[in-house]
Amino acid sequence: MLIFKEIQLLPEIFLGISIIYLIIHGTFISVNNKYLLIQNSVLYLSVLIISLFCFLLINNTIECNDFQIFNNTIIIDYLGSFSKILIAIVSIFCFLMIQRYLTVQKINYFEYSVLILFALLGIFFICSSNDLITAYLAIELQSLSFYIMAALKKDSAFSVDAGLKYFILGAFSSSLFLFGSSILYGVSGTTNFEDLKNLFFWVYSSYDCTQDASDYTFVKDVFINGGLIQFALSFIFVSLLFKLAIAPFHLWSIDVYEGSPSSSTFFFAVVPKLAIFILLVRIFYSSFFEYTAKWRYYIVILAVLTIVVGSFAGLEQKKLKSLLAYSSISHMGYTLIAFSTGTFEGLQMLFCYLFLYMIAGLCIWSIFLMLQLKYKYVKKQNKDLADLSSLSKSNNILALFFSTVLLSIAGLPPMVGFLVKIGIFLVSIEVSMYFVSIVSILCSVISTFYYIRIVKIMFFENSTAGKLYQPIKSHISIVIVCLFYFLLFLFINPTLIYLFSYKITLLLTMTMM
Amino acid sequence: MLDFFLLNVTNLLILILVLPLIGTFLLLFVPSSNHSALKAIALNTSCFLYVISLFLWVFFNKSIGSFQFVSKLLWIPFLNLNFSLGIDGISLFFILLTTLLIFLCILISWNSVKTNIKEFLIAFLVMEFFLIGVFSILDLLLFYIYFESVLIPMYLIVGIWGSRERKIRAAYFFFLYTLLGSVLMLLSILYIYYQVGTTDYEVLLTFIFSKTEQKFLWLSFFGSFATKVPMVPVHLWLPEAHVEAPTAGSVILAGVLLKLGTYGFLRFSFPLFPEASFYFAPIVYLLSVVGIVYTSFTAIRQTDFKRIIAYTSVAHMNLVMVGLFSFNTIGLEGAILQSLSHGFVASALFLIIGVVYERHHTRMVKYYGGLVHVMPLYTFIFLFFTMSNIGLPGTGSFVGEFLILVGSFKTNTSATFISATGMIIGGCYSLWLFNRISYGNLKTQYLKDYIDINKREFFIFLPLIFGTIAIGLYPEIFLNSMHMSVNMLVEITHIYTL
């Protein structure tokens, strides 16, 4: 018997209050001139906050039923909670990893941690939004924090440039979302996913039952043919694709990823994708499934285009960071293939792929942040691929981990990346998308080329005069080793990742019915 | 419990599969500066593994055609993907070949590998794990996983311990050719999984695909296996990879990796898609015959010692393909036997190159000459393997080639005729090469300080010589064990096509 259902939102409330206290704490302490100390203390406090948030989430036992709270604008279900836990754990690792980078780069603002926490709050709200308005506000909270994070290195022209680009294009895409929502509101009179679903379900079913077209000409015009609704939905869809950097809308991401500080790029690349996909699933799988079924072919074309762009453009990259950016673009293409199938298995494989994308991305970006050349000019951060040639000499094990994770991301057989990738191809074959699977698998071979090129640079090239890398701190190395063994473990026992995604999809489809 | 585990014969295969990993695990804990301990661990592991794999042959029941030592481990149960192991008469000898050659490979690189020796040994043991897995797995998807996993250690072996700057290109060639060939096979496997609901091999044997399906599936499997064999249009990676790889890498490449292709045809293409195999047989004949003649002629005009042997391998493996597509017991047994003997002979020839390369660091034929004056034992072994490469009666290749030609004569006379000419050309280049290297005057203007082969190298050659002679003189000991399995394979192939 739960009377005060809103208590289910306690983790987010706790996070919000903590952020405010963190701001106060940071402001008071920054009167002292011990900047490094502020950075560290605020960083550790953020880790503490996220950990407590995580405990509170786990404490909320949500099994089969879902709650809709705050006037049905927020939904608490298993998908949301599990994703939040995953995102929280990933962001704890992110916090631990970026600490050294921030110290080296002398980003001495305590606001950085606060901004990350704000972005996380936004992401958590995206995960559980059940209303277009909530979704918009959550996206804005996340994006606005991200814009500042991109531009935070004030003395770097690249960073400011990246922040401005991110801001302009992000604001543009957000406005598209708002535009689509307003049209949708104009047509249906509601912005709630649940109401929209019920409305359209009712319209469809009653229209099918009566067969008397004369009474329903208005209904037919507006809902069944649905020109206006599709128009509105396409705006929402495009805006979310902007956020995901799917192919025709990906151009911002390369510049932003490369220009912004690596610690911010870490967050942009790894954390928000899952949340945006959850929102996509909530909108297009439950509320507007009848409409989006017609779009499947267009979505598939976008997905293939994304994979092609990610694979071919990555071949020409000289910088590690932009290569990873293109790699993440092509991964979004694979997930979009799974999204476009519209089947139960498709959803399952989509979540599998996204979970693994986050874990593997965490590994790869952590290692990336650890790579610190022994330069005189210590702030040089845009790493050329050629610099990696000395990695196997200065830190052999790290080079080994790096190449293993790269091969996993590339989807080569003995790694877990292979398993989730064949999941994508399996579901695309199940809905008879043979051509798509052939094209995308050939593209995956092409993208393998740039992953094994990094392996080549690390192991095959004998650089006698290369610059050596700084050693890694012990506690960070323990974290990296744990992540690495977790990846290996997932290959030996992939059931773990499959079962979680299976449960999520099962509960999700149950509530959709 | 423990002695139950040790004494139960069915667990032998799991033990063999796990042992290389245990060796790898032990190697990880030895500091990389302690070379002698590293080598000792790797050598003992691989030797022990070879001895245990011989027990596999001892306990092998020759009167059954079905799979033996079958064991099943759960992996992803709810996707019906299980780790089922088992061997039959076809895969038994490939496993023995693998364990023997890895053992020899570690012995070969005893002194020649100077850098990163720990990683080198780990790469070999890991590769042994993958190779044994490929030959003993009874699940299509897991077969693919193992099949592709072999690429990674081999890529590293060619790329890191290769000889020249061209090695990077060679490693890319090897990796991308094989990967590109086999991704379509992955899609076909997924299609099969979607159709049947499982990829378990024994279940798949009971499933009949329609004719159109068979054709598409066969073609995609062909792309993968033909790249591995290698057949003609996609053979370019092989000379590159062979020439640039270290001696041990070449040995394992010629000895075992090329057999993955023929093994794949035997295990999967024939029984799963029998009609398509018949349908596409003419094309395979054409490609193999072209391959035999073309690569034999190409071998004649090479200047690089290793390249000659590499092209020889291509020719011989294409002959194996002719035998495979004869679809009768004689031809198939000949093909397996020829694969085995090629495993011995080609490895030995690469080893012979390795011996002189280790001493003089060149592989160009023109720098050598008159080695018989200073390296008599070496020349004798070289002569022996040259003769077995040609197919002299009494050596393994003769039996293999004879059986292949007899088998394929029943099916396609003209193809048999043309592929038999390949043997004559083979005689040309092998004898020419032997002549250039061994006879004539010593070229002291190029090379000085000749040393005959030492005890270690001699004992590496010894099992290979024994193996070649054993197949040549009394092939029945090998044929005995594979009769039933091959008969069953032929029966399956013929039942569905009638």
TrEMBL record, chain A:
<feature type="transmembrane region" description="Helical">
    <location>
        <begin position="228"/>
        <end position="252"/>
    </location>
</feature>
<feature type="transmembrane region" description="Helical">
    <location>
        <begin position="164"/>
        <end position="187"/>
    </location>
</feature>
<feature type="transmembrane region" description="Helical">
    <location>
        <begin position="433"/>
        <end position="455"/>
    </location>
</feature>
<keyword id="KW-0472">Membrane</keyword>
<feature type="transmembrane region" description="Helical">
    <location>
        <begin position="264"/>
        <end position="285"/>
    </location>
</feature>
<dbReference type="Pfam" id="PF00361">
    <property type="entry name" value="Proton_antipo_M"/>
</dbReference>
<protein>
    <submittedName>
        <fullName>NADH dehydrogenase subunit 2</fullName>
    </submittedName>
</protein>
<feature type="domain" description="NADH:quinone oxidoreductase/Mrp antiporter transmembrane">
    <location>
        <begin position="129"/>
        <end position="447"/>
    </location>
</feature>
<dbReference type="GO" id="GO:0008137">
    <property type="term" value="F:NADH dehydrogenase (ubiquinone) activity"/>
</dbReference>
<dbReference type="GO" id="GO:0042773">
    <property type="term" value="P:ATP synthesis coupled electron transport"/>
</dbReference>
<feature type="transmembrane region" description="Helical">
    <location>
        <begin position="13"/>
        <end position="31"/>
    </location>
</feature>
<feature type="transmembrane region" description="Helical">
    <location>
        <begin position="74"/>
        <end position="97"/>
    </location>
</feature>
<feature type="transmembrane region" description="Helical">
    <location>
        <begin position="397"/>
        <end position="427"/>
    </location>
</feature>
<keyword id="KW-0496">Mitochondrion</keyword>
<feature type="transmembrane region" description="Helical">
    <location>
        <begin position="297"/>
        <end position="315"/>
    </location>
</feature>
<feature type="transmembrane region" description="Helical">
    <location>
        <begin position="43"/>
        <end position="62"/>
    </location>
</feature>
<keyword id="KW-0812">Transmembrane</keyword>
<dbReference type="InterPro" id="IPR001750">
    <property type="entry name" value="ND/Mrp_TM"/>
</dbReference>
<feature type="transmembrane region" description="Helical">
    <location>
        <begin position="347"/>
        <end position="371"/>
    </location>
</feature>
<dbReference type="GO" id="GO:0016020">
    <property type="term" value="C:membrane"/>
</dbReference>
<dbReference type="InterPro" id="IPR010096">
    <property type="entry name" value="NADH-Q_OxRdtase_suN/2"/>
</dbReference>
<feature type="transmembrane region" description="Helical">
    <location>
        <begin position="476"/>
        <end position="500"/>
    </location>
</feature>
TrEMBL record, chain B:
<feature type="transmembrane region" description="Helical">
    <location>
        <begin position="80"/>
        <end position="108"/>
    </location>
</feature>
<feature type="transmembrane region" description="Helical">
    <location>
        <begin position="309"/>
        <end position="330"/>
    </location>
</feature>
<keyword id="KW-0249">Electron transport</keyword>
<keyword id="KW-0813">Transport</keyword>
<feature type="transmembrane region" description="Helical">
    <location>
        <begin position="336"/>
        <end position="357"/>
    </location>
</feature>
<dbReference type="GO" id="GO:0031966">
    <property type="term" value="C:mitochondrial membrane"/>
</dbReference>
<feature type="transmembrane region" description="Helical">
    <location>
        <begin position="120"/>
        <end position="138"/>
    </location>
</feature>
<dbReference type="InterPro" id="IPR010227">
    <property type="entry name" value="NADH_Q_OxRdtase_chainM/4"/>
</dbReference>
<feature type="transmembrane region" description="Helical">
    <location>
        <begin position="144"/>
        <end position="162"/>
    </location>
</feature>
<feature type="transmembrane region" description="Helical">
    <location>
        <begin position="417"/>
        <end position="437"/>
    </location>
</feature>
<feature type="transmembrane region" description="Helical">
    <location>
        <begin position="41"/>
        <end position="60"/>
    </location>
</feature>
<feature type="transmembrane region" description="Helical">
    <location>
        <begin position="458"/>
        <end position="479"/>
    </location>
</feature>
<dbReference type="InterPro" id="IPR001750">
    <property type="entry name" value="ND/Mrp_TM"/>
</dbReference>
<feature type="transmembrane region" description="Helical">
    <location>
        <begin position="250"/>
        <end position="270"/>
    </location>
</feature>
<keyword id="KW-0496">Mitochondrion</keyword>
<feature type="transmembrane region" description="Helical">
    <location>
        <begin position="377"/>
        <end position="405"/>
    </location>
</feature>
<dbReference type="GO" id="GO:0042773">
    <property type="term" value="P:ATP synthesis coupled electron transport"/>
</dbReference>
<keyword id="KW-0679">Respiratory chain</keyword>
<protein>
    <recommendedName>
        <fullName>NADH-ubiquinone oxidoreductase chain 4</fullName>
        <ecNumber>7.1.1.2</ecNumber>
    </recommendedName>
</protein>
<keyword id="KW-0520">NAD</keyword>
<comment type="function">
    <text>Core subunit of the mitochondrial membrane respiratory chain NADH dehydrogenase (Complex I) that is believed to belong to the minimal assembly required for catalysis. Complex I functions in the transfer of electrons from NADH to the respiratory chain. The immediate electron acceptor for the enzyme is believed to be ubiquinone.</text>
</comment>
<comment type="similarity">
    <text>Belongs to the complex I subunit 4 family.</text>
</comment>
